[in-house]
């Protein structure tokens, strides 16, 4: 009797730990997104600004620079660069253009030289690289002033552009296309230090107003999440009141109310919070690009994309619904639609945890755990306020861990590959899964043929999922 009781307690502890560990994957994966600009003030570190009107600022929720000209003028980030003599370089900038009208548009240029990239006026709501190839012809190293932004002194324009990174690459061979020759004697001696503004800007735009000022999602979300996990673990480990709460939660009308309340509450937050700006722009842009440009052209169109194909399929459906419903890009309905997959995945997580936990701790306690998960502050902040999609790839991760526990390694491997094809952060749990599989298969001697067959089966399952999802 005592042994059965101890086993039951172990199962409760196992379930509680799995619940806590899986949810704590969220902040780790969300923290990976960043740009290549570093900021210490109003401008990126090491950069100055040439300005004739407009405003330049850090785009909230990202490390991008946002340049905006409401009236015709120029607005260019500028930085001193040292280039080797008689050397060819490719300079690129990752840009997202809301719009640009007239003049030199969005461009890269070398101040005082004829070198300037082809103008860009729109990136069709996706990321694009603007490129400039230059070669030096001086005998000694020469300092130049690199600029990127809107318009020039000679060809002003107006519009808005977001810049996430600027890179300079030394080339071993002469590239195809136009290469601009830089003449050292033409480089002007401009009085410019990092942080300087050469010219004048209009009034800087006000930062976005959030529903809760100074609201720190990480600190407050983690604190509330810790409380929820402690309470959930207490109910699961002791069983006190948890069974009664769970029995009530299992009633059909209560389930409907809880699910509807969880969804409605999340949608209210979506309407109030702008989300992680850079990710929201990416998700919306990818949805439009995947649907309008076609899935087969998505990764070859030249736009920025760092998500695997499986989630792009999800965004394709979002793009199709946007077109079907005639939604505007900046409409609240399109914003809600973009975050809806993650919100529905939150609900699915609650159901999956209930189904799996019920096999170990009974249906009543499992129902209490599922209900607690539905209203976990971290899930709500992650999917609704931030607009992240971690709950989507956690669904197959949970399936993977569940089937590992059942010693069904081939099925577990397939689920893990599905998670990886949804989001690269599935790699965070790869070492744990790998150790478990290796220990299960090779922790005891004998049956080498069977073990080798299972190992090959795991590889085949992962390969099959990869090959299916990487198409077209």
Key descriptive features of the protein:
about 20% strand; alpha+beta; single chain; about 475 residues; five-stranded mixed beta sheet; six-stranded mixed beta sheet; 13 helices
Your description of this structure?
It is a single chain. The protein is α+β, with helices and mostly antiparallel strands and 472 residues long. It contains 13 helices and eleven strands. Strands 2-3-9-5-7-10 form a six-stranded mixed sheet, with no helix packed on it. It is elongated. About 6% of the residues have low confidence.
Put the structure in a nutshell.
The protein is of the alpha+beta class. The chain has 13 helices and 11 strands. The strands form 2 sheets. It has a 6-stranded mixed beta sheet with strand order 2-3-9-5-7-10, with no helix packed on it.
Q: Calculate the mean pLDDT score and round it.
A: 79
Tally the helices: what do you get? Answer: 13
Number of strands: 11
Low-confidence stretches: 23-35, 204-218
* SS-derived structural category: alpha+beta
Topology at a glance:
Blueprint: H1 2-30, E1 48-52, E2 55-58, E3 65-73, E4 75-83, E5 88-101, E6 106-110, E7 128-136, E8 142-150, E9 157-171, E10 180-182, E11 197-200, H2 217-238, H3 242-249, H4 252-272, H5 277-293, H6 309-325, H7 332-361, H8 363-374, H9 377-385, H10 390-405, H11 409-422, H12 430-442, H13 448-469
Parallel strand pairs: 1-11, 7-10
Antiparallel strand pairs: 1-4, 2-3, 3-9, 4-8, 5-7, 5-9, 6-8
Helix pairs in contact: 1-2, 1-7, 1-10, 2-8, 3-8, 4-7, 4-9, 5-6, 6-7, 7-8, 7-9, 7-10, 10-11, 11-13
């Amino acid at each position: 009797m005592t042994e059965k009781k101890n086993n039951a307690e172990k199962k409760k502890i196992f379930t509680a730990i799995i619940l806590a560990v899986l949810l704590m994957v969220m902040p780790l994966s969300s923290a990976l997104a960043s740009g290549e600009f570093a900021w210490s003030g109003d401008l990126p570190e090491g950069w100055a600004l040439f300005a004739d009107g407009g405003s330049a600022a850090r785009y909230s929720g990202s490390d991008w620079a946002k340049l905006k000209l409401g009236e015709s003028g120029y607005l260019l980030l500028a930085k001193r660069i040292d280039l080797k003599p008689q050397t060819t370089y490719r300079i690129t900038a990752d840009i997202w253009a809301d719009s640009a009208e007239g003049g030199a548009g969005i461009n890269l240029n070398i101040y005082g030289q004829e070198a300037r990239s082809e103008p860009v006026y729109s990136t069709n709501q996706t990321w694009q690289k603007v490129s400039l190839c230059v070669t030096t012809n001086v005998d000694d190293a020469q300092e130049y002033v690199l600029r990127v932004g809107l318009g020039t002194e000679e060809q002003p324009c107006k519009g808005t552009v977001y810049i996430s990174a600027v890179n300079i690459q030394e080339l071993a061979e002469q590239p195809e296309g136009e290469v601009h020759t830089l003449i050292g004697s033409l480089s002007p001696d401009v009085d410019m230090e990092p942080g300087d503004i050469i010219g004048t800007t209009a009034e800087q735009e006000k930062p976005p107003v959030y529903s809760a000022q100074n609201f720190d999602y990480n600190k407050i979300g983690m604190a509330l999440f810790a409380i929820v996990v402690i309470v959930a673990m207490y109910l699961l480990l002791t069983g006190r009141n948890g069974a009664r709460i769970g029995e009530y939660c299992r009633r059909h009308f209560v389930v409907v109310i809880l699910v509807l309340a969880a969804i409605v509450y999340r949608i209210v937050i979506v309407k109030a919070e702008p989300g992680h700006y850079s990710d929201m722009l990416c998700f919306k842009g990818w949805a439009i690009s995947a649907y309008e440009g076609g899935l087969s052209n998505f990764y070859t169109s030249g736009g920025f994309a760092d998500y695997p194909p499986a989630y792009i399929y999800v965004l394709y459906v979002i793009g199709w619904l946007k077109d079907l419903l005639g939604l505007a890009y900046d409409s609240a309905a399109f914003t809600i639609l973009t975050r809806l997959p993650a919100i529905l995945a939150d609900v699915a997580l609650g159901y999956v945890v209930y189904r799996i936990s019920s096999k170990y701790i009974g249906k009543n306690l499992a129902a209490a755990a599922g209900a607690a998960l539905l209203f976990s502050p971290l899930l709500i902040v992650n999917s609704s306020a931030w607009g992240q999609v971690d709950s989507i790839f956690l669904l197959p991760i949970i399936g993977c861990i569940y089937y590992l526990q059942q010693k069904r390694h081939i099925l577990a491997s397939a689920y893990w590959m599905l998670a990886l094809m949804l989001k690269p952060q599935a790699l965070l749990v790869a070492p744990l899964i790998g150790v478990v599989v290796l220990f299960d298969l090779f922790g005891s001697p004998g049956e080498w043929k069977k073990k080798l067959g299972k190992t090959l089966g795991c590889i085949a399952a992962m390969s099959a999922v990869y090959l299916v999802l990487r198409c077209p």
